[in-house]
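Researcher: Going back to the complex we discussed earlier. I've cleaned up the inputs and rechecked each line, so this should be the final set. Can you rerun the prediction on the complete assembly and write out the structure?
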Amino acid sequence: MSDKPKFAMYWAASCGGCEIAVLNIHEKILDVDANFDIAFWPVAMDAKYKDVEAMEDGSILLTLFNGGIRTEENEHLAKLLRKKSQILVAFGSCAVEGGNPGLANFSTKDQIFETVYSTVSTENPDGVYPQPSFEMPEGTITIPVFEPVLRTLDQVVDVDYYMPGCPPESHQIEAVIDLVIQVLEGKAELPPKGATIGVGPSTCCDECTRTRNVKKIKEFRRIQLVDDIDPDLCLLEQGILCVGPATASGCGAKCPTAGAPCIGCYGPAAGVVDFGARMMTAVASVIDSRDPDEIDRILDGIVDPAGTFYKFNLAHSLLRTGNATWNGK
Amino acid sequence: MTKDFEPLIIGFTCNWCSYRAADMAGTARLKYPPNVRLIRLMCSGRIDPSFILKALAGGADGVLITGCHPGECHYLEQNYKALRRVKLLKRTLAPFGINPDRVKLVWASAAEGVKLAREIGVFVEEIRELGPLNWPARSTPEINPVVEEVEEVAG
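Model: Rerun complete. Updated structure for the full complex:
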């Protein structure tokens, strides 16, 4: 291997979209190759965990870690890569705040296994459930233990930077890679540790091109059930639950521009303590009714408030931090 | 539920009505359970759901929100916002494993010291019935030192 700085990327409990996002930066990927040796990146090249274990501590300059911590294996790799990396970035919503897989924290491990292995859509006549270890004639075989909850990367190890998004946008990844290369060349400095990088300073609404007026909502509607959406008017004003008001800018308001409500993948905007709480405040403020019964009727239009308000943020929510069971203790 | 469980309740009061109602209850020497810790805000509309979530996450068994009667808000209509926020928050709590009845909204004007004292008493008993929230997995209910002191004085 050459003496170029080393780069690593790893996926824990994730979908693989973050990996695709990194490959989707077009020619910029050549800059990555020109400036870094890829030390470990399971989706792109073959490497074994023992190769990483054999590396010197701190020998990887930059690790992009995506995915939440759901299994023993995820946790092992998080701790291992922390030890081997100088800069560890929680990359993508799942590593930063739990993401979609974090929604499983509404269910217990048993409920999850029951849904996966024994509900009506599953063909499992012998009722086989995964066993962490199993005796075979050839010896004991094992799979990683599924932990009680999904944790974010910073609930397991110390994290240097956070880069949200599901997945992070190409132009944001390019900007971060450019910055790291400039730092290597001594032309720039790294942001302070713990910073959220690759996001804008405001909310998704600020980047949205739709027209905003005074919001007075009399009815919430699910976007798939309506066909009279005004293409130029704020979706929330039209009764489509859009979580842009609580979400950090940085993506260019891609979803609302394309006609779909923001689902909050860029994480809480600066100053938001709890993503769900901010959305509850925002939504409650724009409901146009003073009558308790009518308010209830309007709120009935929000089919799954908890799942909607915590679609990406459940593992990092205020309530989650207060519950020891959810902390995996 | 243990017999010696004393609910810990955080109460948010409005500067213009319920806080004065609590004051009046005190001046009038009305008795209400010591389980509630009152926090004064300028208006029930100041309450961000994160305050309530933080109280529950931090060990409160229940949260009482009090404000001016509908139509009587010092800031015209912020108490309606509080009403809508509390309604939405209660709908969000259940999947977390928290009984929505642990959050209650009560209207009390500055003249209603008696009503506020009664409502606090009712809410404490409702929470006692629900038992400890146990949410940061408390193994034993916390007996509040203030409560013990009061019991000692009461003999």
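Model: Worth noting: Strands of chain B lie at 9-14, 36-41, 62-67, 103-107.
Researcher: Good, that matches what I expected from the previous run.
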